[in-house]
Specification:
This protein is α+β, with helices and mostly antiparallel strands. Among the domains are: 72 residues; 149 residues, Heat Shock Protein 90, CATH 3.30.565. Helix content is 59%, strand content 12%. The protein is built from nine helices and seven strands; from the N terminus they run αααααβααββαββαββ. It has a five-stranded mixed sheet with strand order 2-4-5-7-6, covered by helices on one side. A two-stranded antiparallel sheet has the order 1-3. A hairpin with a 3-residue loop joins β6 and β7. α4 packs antiparallel against α5. The longest helix is centred in the middle third of the chain and has 56 residues. The mean pLDDT is 83.
Length: 331
């Protein structure tokens, strides 16, 4: 309200108009040597009429301001139909510009969504096709049962994980990604992932300290499997000896994944969840994409899981995942 009143009386053209009107009245009355009463009556009535017009104008402007403030909070593509009728040619010009920009934005958004759908469809087909030979190779290698076949099986599992990561990354970028939040058994989830890396633990002679009892967390099973798989994959990749420990504290809904690996340098630690960041202390290997932990953080943000990392170089790394205790967090 204050800004509207200020705008009305600080407009230079309006001030010139008001001042000009008063001066014209004064000059005419002076030239004709009219009595004071003849001057006062028109001035009083004019001021009263002007005051009424100002009040009406302020009321109209206030209503328009409130409506525009509400429209400003709406998605850009829905603004066009909500704009108030223009009161002048200049306002019409502004609205034409807004409509033109929104039209181009809408077209760009539609084009982007189509490209994302096409890309996702293409890679979905690619993943489906590549998994067929992977499954065939797995059966042949399992039948061989030799040291070399077990080594190849481990590498084959890594390939499959990278393939799955591609699809997870693409789906995460989509606006149509759905999450099914419900109570899930955390021990069952962790066990599923541990079994997947059984050969890696055996080959690297690493101990597994499993401290997870039957307990339930609110989460999306499919997506949290990806999170834990990626973290555990990193543990195995960067731990040459020692152990990997997985523990769950039910009272705090806290999952801890710990390793005795090479650790992360203190200068790199704040940036490990950035997309494309690989670090410089050995975690940034030649084949590292810098996507894994970015994917983990993005999924955790969407699932309302608080994730943090503690690490000490040449000592090990701890990942803490705190699950929400109430569905209110997802609303």
């Amino acid at each position: 309200m204050k800004n509207i009143i200020k705008d009305m009386f600080t407009n230079k053209i309006r001030l010139i108009g008001y001042a000009g009107t008063i001066i014209i009245f004064a000059v005419i009355f002076y030239l004709y040597n009219l009595p004071l009463q003849a001057v006062l009556y028109p001035v009083v009535f004019s001021m009263a009429y002007l005051a009424i017009l100002v009040v009406i104008r302020i009321s109209v402007k206030t209503g328009k301001h409130k409506r525009l403030s509400h429209i400003a909070k709406l998605p850009a593509v829905s603004v066009t139909d909500k704009l108030p009728s223009p009161e002048s040619t200049l306002e019409q010009d502004y609205q034409n510009i807004i409509n033109h920009v929104i039209g181009e934005l809408s077209e760009a958004l539609t084009s982007h969504e189509k490209k994302m759908r096409d890309t996702t469809d293409y890679y979905s087909t690619w993943v489906h096709q590549i998994k067929t030979p992977i499954a065939s190779m797995r059966l042949h290698l399992q039948a061989m049962d030799s040291d070399s076949s077990r080594n190849l099986l481990r590498n084959l599992s890594s390939i499959e994980s990278y393939v799955d990561m591609v699809m997870s990354y693409l789906r995460l970028q989509s606006e149509h990604t759905d999450y099914v939040i419900q109570k899930e058994n955390i021990r069952d989830i962790v066990t599923t992932i541990v079994r997947k890396f059984k050969l890696d633990f055996i080959e690297k002679k690493l101990s597994l300290k499993m401290e997870v009892e039957d307990a339930y967390v609110l989460t999306d099973r499919k997506w949290v499997l990806i999170v834990i798989e990626q973290i555990l994959s990193n543990c195995l990749k960067y731990t040459k000896e020692g152990y990997v420990r997985i523990a769950f504290k039910e009272d705090d809904s806290l999952l801890v994944i710990e390793d005795t690996g090479i650790g992360i340098d203190a200068t790199n630690l704040p940036r490990i969840f950035e997309r494309g960041y690989t670090g410089f202390n050995g975690r940034g290997e030649a084949h590292s994409s810098g996507i894994g932990l970015y994917l983990v953080k993005s999924i955790c943000d969407n699932l309302k899981i608080d994730i943090r990392c503690e690490s000490q170089e040449n000592v090990g790394t701890k990942m803490y995942l705190t699950f929400p205790k109430n569905k209110v967090f997802y609303e």
